[in-house]
Amino acid sequence: MEKLILEGFMGSGKSTYGRELAKNLLIKFTDTDCEIEKKNQKTIANIFELYGEEAFRNMETDYLLEKSASLDKVEEIISIGGGMPVRSENRELMKKIGTVVYLKAEADFLKKRLRGKDNSRPMLAGDNKDEKIDRLLEEREDAYLDAADYVLHIDKKDLDSVINELKGILHGRRKGMREL
Ligand code: S3P
Fold first, then answer.
1. 128 with 79: CB under 8 angstroms?
2. Within a domain: residue 178?
3. What is the whole-number distance in angstroms between the Cα of residue 169 and the centre of ligand 1?
4. What would the DSSP string read from start to end of 64-86?
5. Is 44 close to ligand 1, i.e. is its CB under 6 Å away?
6. pTM
7. How far does the centroid of ligand 1 lie from the alpha carbon of residue 178, in Å?
8. Of all atoms in ligand 1, which is nearest to the CA of residue 8?
9. Of 99, 112, 158, 161, which one is least surrounded by beta carbons within 10 A?
10. Is 33 near ligand 1, meaning CB less than 6 Å away?
């Protein structure tokens, strides 16, 4: 399988693990949020502010449509935005593009990681961040599981073991083991 798609909630480390894995294997790394920012010459926060969430979600679907229409055989790690798997159309496109790994973490772990003033994530802007995290996690869990070929628990593992498990998945050594 040439392409590995990393999905998961905000703060689950999709970009960190994805970048590290690609660097390790000397293969291409793509972050869909960065692609959307480049294409629009705006930050994600600006896109939400100017055009709203729905427009951003359409941009995510457009990215997947373009990607699936121009699939190549280049090995690539793709980290996607945390809300991308919510649309069922997107989940179908993700499955078409590559092997999907859900980087799963408990709510408390994510809350700690997402603590602090960070205005780059509009879905968590304003007060009651922890409640927003609980609500979104609950809303999204089924979508993450539906899209996933593999569920990789990350909260009790160090960087190296997550990277090794991802390498195993990419190189087909984890067939038949859905949950790691
Ligand atoms: C979002 C997650 C963000 C980004 C946007 C919306 C979400 O990506 O796509 O702010 O709805 O969960 P990260 O998961 O990389 O933070």
1. no
2. no
3. 24
4. HHHHHHT--S--EEEE--TTGGG
5. yes
6. 0.96
7. 25
8. 14
9. 158
10. yes
Domain assignment present for 25: yes
Domain assignment of residue 118, given as a range: 3-170
Per DSSP, the three-state class of 147 is helix
Q: How far is the CA of 8 from the centre of ligand 1 (A)?
A: 9
Q: How many domains does the chain have?
A: 1
- Asked whether residue 142 is assigned to any structural domain, the reply reads yes
* Parallel/antiparallel/unpaired status of strands 99-104 and 28-31: unpaired
What are the mean pLDDT values of the chain's consecutive 10-residue runs (180 residues total)?
A: 92 97 97 98 97 98 97 95 98 97 97 86 93 97 97 96 95 77
**CATH number, position 120:** 3.40.50.300
Give the CA distances from residue 150 to residues 13, 27, 153, 174, in Å, rounded to whole numbers and listed in that order. Answer: 16, 21, 10, 9
